[in-house]
Every structure is written in C-alpha cells, then in structure tokens.
Amino acid sequence: MTSVRVVIADDHELFRDGLRGLLVELGATVVAETADGNAALAATLLHRPDVVLMDLRMPGLGGIEATARIGEQAPGTAVLVLTMSEDTASLQAALQAGARGYLLKESSKADVARALAAVARGELVIGPGIADKVRHAVGGLSPRLFPQLTEAEVRVLDLVADGLANGQIAARLLLSEKTVRNRISTILTKLGAATRTEVVLRARDAGFGSGPS
User: Fold this and answer.
1) Does the reported pTM lie above 0.90?
2) For a FRET experiment, which of 6, 48, 122, 147 has its CA 20 to 30 Å from that of 70?
3) Quick check: 48 and 77 in contact, CB under 8 A?
4) Quick one: 146 exposed, middle or buried, by C-beta within 10 A (0-12, 13-18, 19+)?
5) What is the Cα–Cα distance from 194 to 16, expressed in whole angstroms?
6) pLDDT tens track for 127-179
7) Contact, 173 vs 156, CB < 8 A?
8) Residues 88, 137: contact at Cβ < 8 Å?
9) What backbone torsions phi and psi does residue 34 show, to the nearest 5 degrees?
C-alpha cells in the first residue's frame, strides 16, 4: 500500500480529513485534495496518481464527468468512487464512465483498503453494500470483470465466491470434481492468486457470489 499515490475528490472537508487520516494509516500517500471535479482532473494531470477517490455529487463538474475525463486524459490513473449514492443508475453511470471501483461511504476500513489495492492493480471492485446491484447494472456476471477467464471459469468462480465446496460446484454445474479442481487451479493461476481464500475475497469485491451469510 505504501506505493499507492492518491488524490481525494470530495466537497465535504470533514470527510476529506477523515479519509486522509485513514489513507495515511493504511500507508498510502495523499498527493492532493480537491473539492470539485475540475480540480480533481487538474490534480490528476499534475500528479499522475495511481488512484483518485471520487465523490459523485460535487459543485461544478460532477464525479461522473470528471471520471470520464480522467479516463481520457490520464488512462494510467484508476478512479475509485466513494459515495453515498447506492442507486443502480449512479453505479451504472460510474462504470460506464470508466470507474474501476464503487464503494459506499459507510464501507469499513478493511473494504477501503482492499478496494484501493485492487483498483491500483487494475481490477474492478464493487463494494459489498451494493454488490448485488452490479448484476443488473452490467447485465449479469460477465467475463469482462475478469477478462482473462473463460465463461465456464466465471461460472465456477461465482460458486466458489458463494462458498460452495468442489463437490457442490460439480453437482450444480453437472461436472466431475476433477474438472472443478482443474478449473479452480486455472482460475488461481490466471488471477495470480496464491490461495482459494484470496480468490474468494477478490471475486466478492467484484460482485460475485452472495458473500458471507
């Protein structure tokens, strides 16, 4: 986390203060703080951070348009939306604008830490509070969330994220347990994951599975 450079874009000063403290605690470097989309874009072009933490509703240029412009002018910077908006329309608009992540402001410190690290690696992250809505927003589970996986591997990944054992996955998909084991092994390799637990966490961050009960 120490190598992650961040711009904060939010028009609420108290929230920025708290977020800055959290990022410092996590070991990230805050290179700029802004209160509107135009300033966020300017700071991004000046500092070229790894991640912009973007609020959606700000005066002047809003977060959606700022996200789109950052994608066009600074494609090496990932935008992680951090907002109070949990409606599907905002989620879909942010993803279409090129946001790499979408979290609610009520997210835990652990959720923020995982999301920040994930989007900095180029992954797509959907916060646990709205993960179910991503299925509707992007038309269901899609290999484009993990483009290196085949559709068959995506189906296995979703069930792994649900916490199903290999035998249960095999029964659900009408496969042999050996085939399931092989596909899970391939998924770990393609995602660069060391353990099944790591895959589960990353998949749930991206909206797969139902999460823990």
Assistant:
1) no
2) 147
3) yes
4) buried
5) 35
6) 876 765 555 444 444 445 677 888 788 889 988 988 899 999 988 887 888 99
7) yes
8) yes
9) -135, 160
Q: Which two tokens stand for residue 139?
A: 């038309």
Measured from the Cβ of residue 27, the count of other Cβ atoms closer than 10 Å reads 11
Amino acid at the residue 190: K
What are the pLDDT digits (tens) for 174-199?
Answer: 788 899 999 999 999 988 888 999 89
Beta bridge partners of 126: 102
* Confidence at residue 131, expressed as pLDDT on a 0 to 100 scale: 61
| Contact indicator for 32, 58 with CB cutoff of 8 Å | no
Find the angle CA(151)-CA(155)-CA(157) to the nearest 5 degrees.
110
| CA–CA dist 53, 173 (Å, integer) | 39
CA–CA distance, 82 with 60 (Å, rounded to integer): 18
